[in-house]
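Why do we bother with holo predictions? Because pocket geometry can differ from the apo form. Keep that in mind while you read this record for BIS(adenosine)-5'-pentaphosphate.
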Amino acid sequence: METKRDRKAWLKGGTAVCEPAPEPVEGLRRLVLLGAPGVGKGTQAELLAAKLGACQLSTGDVFRGAKSLSPGERSPAITAALEYMRRGELVPDETVVDLVAERVGCLRCPGGFLLDGFPRTVAQAEALEDLLKRNNLKLDAVVSYDLPTDKLVARLAGRRTCPGCKAVFHIQTRPPKVQGVCDHCGGVLCQREDDRPESIRVRMAAYEKSTAPLAQYYRNKRLLIPVLAEGAPEAIFQRTLKALNGKHAAAKSAK
Ligand code: AP5
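The structure, written out:
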């Protein structure tokens, strides 16, 4: 069984610390992954994390993790967030920004970070910029994945995830070795509540209205790297690495 990178500090928050501490790597390692629901951000984050040593910081994973808390352990903001999420709507900016700010140690991690699902609105992007500035950090690049809507829906409908280690599979394109069982930790795979057709429609609309404008926001800051998300995960991963290496080389030669 393969083991996945420890993300305790991100997933649990509070005083949790990851083991072992990652080593710094050469190249671009403070990244945002942008794209519509189902485009494959989580899948690429997993591959990039293994290659770059940077950690996948998914806001969606933190909210899904909160589902396993008893009602008494959940704050009112998290209880409300889970209801927004179930319907496919975005969680209010304030709740999401507070959640990331509480985990600012993960942004400072010497291994770098792969923000997956955050920021999702211009207000969140501005809050991230402010948070990074206050910690003497800056974003290296924003990878923006693109795919036609019909293919996004097919990816969401066949997705299965591991509630234990958060690994992502697809019943046709990325099946686990044993049906219904996680390759990494042996957990029982599940379908996400927000992958139902009615929630998918709401998520797509929220993406078009609130998140798609972020591509222009980051293009204006010369951080955007567009990557076509067609084809197998490994092909997209190689495309992403090539684009990141190109940007890194250009940044080095401009110095
Ligand atoms: P979140 O968990 O972030 O979901 P999302 O952005 O909707 O993205 P997904 O996780 O659905 O898709 P993905 O792009 O990661 O695709 P994946 O790799 O899994 O957010 C969920 C909810 O939380 C939101 O709706 C909102 O309510 C709330 N939330 C979270 N962050 C928030 C924020 N910042 N602000 C406000 N609210 C927030 O791939 C999908 C499937 O396709 C998988 O089965 C995979 O195996 C398969 N697949 C992947 N790549 C390929 C490929 N190349 N070919 C074929 N199949 C593939």
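The mean pLDDT is 92.
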